[in-house]
């Protein structure tokens, strides 16, 4: 049945991350119910499973909702069961927190604490507002040095968008692309060199996977076997590489905020707002579907509060 889940995920063109997450939650649900078949269970078991996650395991609301999404996918998409209890299962309410944002000087200290490829990637996250995986999946053909822009393909929600190419990163990106093409040429000589492409593109353009423009800007050091089809390819750099470097750089820079790679995206949006950029433009650059998602950064700025003098400072204390 788990193979059926994987197959359905691929028919729906879900990412490999989503596929692995769904398979993991479905396996966990079945094991938690003494390996009973999901057809023998209903809303009572689903609710009990989610309750244990929330009360005993104390998972975050987003994690609980991901588990629910996996089970709904199982019943609706794989088993073809659409029962009334599905709509009755209550999703966990995610807390709306203000994102962590670094000050401009803190961003400068963080970037100075890195070097090489990680520094270039971190600069790209802050300079363009891209998500970490969007930067790692960047293809050579989507870096436009003449127009000074980057095309973000298939971002969150399956949308494309344009972001500015920071002039300061031009030299580093050219060097990185030259390195990627050198690796690609070496792979071709060894009989490899075909990068992963979505199935539809592979069928429509059979030779595209070996073309230079489709290669990743930030390729991995080694070839690896694709879990989806078993092909040996050079994937993009793993996200954990940059995450570790950013964590180390944050400590080295003496930054106490719990900053991560995604914090650079938050800082990009906030600093644009501080410089007077309109929020609709920022929404487009970030790829937000709903303006309310972008408006969280107006709360980070808290312009009204910054103009208020604390009553404590009015007291004539010695």
From TrEMBL:
Family, similarity comment: Belongs to the 'phage' integrase family.
Pfam family, one: Phage_integrase
All residue ranges annotated as the Tyr recombinase domain in the record: 97-313
Keyword GTP-binding (UniProt): no
Gene3D superfamilies: 1.10.150.130, Intergrase catalytic core
Domain of life: Bacteria
Species classification: Bacteria, Pseudomonadati, Pseudomonadota, Gammaproteobacteria, Lysobacterales
Segments forming domain Core-binding (CB): 1-79
InterPro entries on file: CB (IPR044068), DNA_brk_join_enz (IPR011010), Integrase-like_cat_sf (IPR013762), Integrase_catalytic (IPR002104), Integrase_integron-type (IPR011946), Integrase_recombinase_N (IPR010998), Integrase_SAM-like_N (IPR004107), Tyrosine_recombinase_XerCD (IPR050090)
Keyword field contains Repeat: no
Protein name stated in the entry: Integron integrase
Keywords, comma-separated and alphabetical: DNA integration, DNA recombination, DNA-binding
